[in-house]
């Protein structure tokens, strides 16, 4: 609601207040979204996004190189996606990253001229050797990248429930996440990755922790896939959603 505040306030007055007033409930994707939606003062239920589990996923036993491949896939929105924090964090831990021959690949479409800003960041920080910026990827090309990724990185300041993270987890890739992704707590609980605070120091430290923890990447990746299978598969999401609808309709009737 705070992004493009005036436009959203106007839209609420013209359209959405009426939608909400006449609804039985609001459907939120995560606990974080629930907390940001309580101001409507309506009944709210939480059911997340869903993901189809791919039959082929990262084969950790065939991993031959010893370095860690970090990957970000998403819109190049510097503030929203926390890419400024990520690049600062990489620069701060660059010595350890180089020592362990790790690398970061960033894929995504330009957003309001952010691509040029990110390119300048990389040059100014002198991290061209460990960070590469790429064009957006889709479908099979994206899935090949995920299968060759060791750690998926998402340092967003705020989100609903990013599909990119669920996709990475479905491919047995552990994740390095900030609380703004709204799934970092579950990642921690299920030992499917690492949570860092939304700050440069915490992200830099998180990168170093991942490097020191590289012996556990395979197990964390498999835990990530199991989390999607047990909670975020479309079968589970469909059942949860339908049950919520039935409950609301039965109470209404």
Short description:
The protein is α/β, with parallel strands linked by helices. It has helices at residues 5-21, 31-37, 83-92, 94-99, 114-124, 139-147, 163-170, 184-189, 200-212, 217-232, 234-252; strands at 26-28, 44-46, 69-73, 103-107, 131-134, 151-154, 175-177, 193-195.
Question: What do these coordinates show?
Answer:
This protein has helices at residues 5-21, 31-37, 83-92, 94-99, 114-124, 139-147, 163-170, 184-189, 200-212, 217-232, 234-252, and strands at residues 26-28, 44-46, 69-73, 103-107, 131-134, 151-154, 175-177, 193-195. It is α/β, with parallel strands linked by helices.
Secondary-structure-based class equals: alpha/beta
Mean pLDDT: 94
Number of helices: 11
> How are the strands ordered across the major sheet?
5-4-3-6-7-8
- Distance linking N and C termini: 33 Å
Percentage of residues in strands: 5-15%
Contiguous low-pLDDT stretches (5 residues minimum) are: none
Radius of gyration: 20 Å
* Helix-strand sequence: HEHEEHHEHEHEHEHEHHH
Could you tell me the number of beta strands? 8
- Main pleated sheet: 6 strands, parallel
Helix content: 40-55%
Shape from CA axes? globular
Provide the fold topology.
Blueprint: H1 5-21, E1 26-28, H2 31-37, E2 44-46, E3 69-73, H3 83-92, H4 94-99, E4 103-107, H5 114-124, E5 131-134, H6 139-147, E6 151-154, H7 163-170, E7 175-177, H8 184-189, E8 193-195, H9 200-212, H10 217-232, H11 234-252
Parallel strand pairs: 1-2, 3-4, 3-6, 4-5, 6-7, 7-8
Helix pairs in contact: 3-9, 7-10
């Amino acid at each position: 609601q705070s992004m493009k505040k005036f436009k959203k306030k106007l839209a609420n007055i013209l359209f959405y207040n009426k939608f909400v007033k006449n609804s039985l409930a609001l459907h939120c994707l995560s606990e974080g979204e629930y907390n940001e939606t309580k101001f409507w003062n309506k009944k709210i239920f939480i059911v997340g996004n869903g993901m189809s589990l791919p039959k082929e996923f990262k084969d950790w036993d065939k991993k031959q190189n010893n370095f860690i491949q970090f990957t970000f896939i998403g819109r190049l929105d510097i503030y929203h996606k926390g890419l400024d924090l990520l690049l600062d964090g990489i620069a701060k831990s660059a010595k350890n990253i180089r020592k362990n021959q790790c690398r970061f690949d960033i894929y995504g479409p330009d957003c309001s001229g952010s691509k040029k800003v990110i390119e300048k960041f990389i040059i100014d920080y002198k991290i061209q050797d460990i960070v590469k910026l790429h064009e957006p990827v889709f479908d099979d090309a994206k899935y090949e990248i995920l299968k060759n990724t060791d750690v998926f990185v998402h340092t967003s300041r705020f989100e609903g429930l990013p599909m990119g993270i669920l996709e990475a987890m479905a491919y047995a890739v552990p994740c390095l996440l900030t609380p703004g992704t709204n799934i970092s707590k579950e990642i921690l609980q299920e030992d499917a990755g690492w949570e860092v605070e939304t700050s440069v120091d915490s992200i830099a430290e998180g990168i170093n922790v991942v490097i020191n923890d590289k012996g556990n990447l395979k197990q964390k990746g498999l835990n990530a896939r199991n989390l999607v299978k047990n909670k975020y598969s479309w079968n589970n999401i469909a059942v949860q959603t339908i049950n919520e609808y039935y409950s609301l309709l039965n109470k209404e009737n």
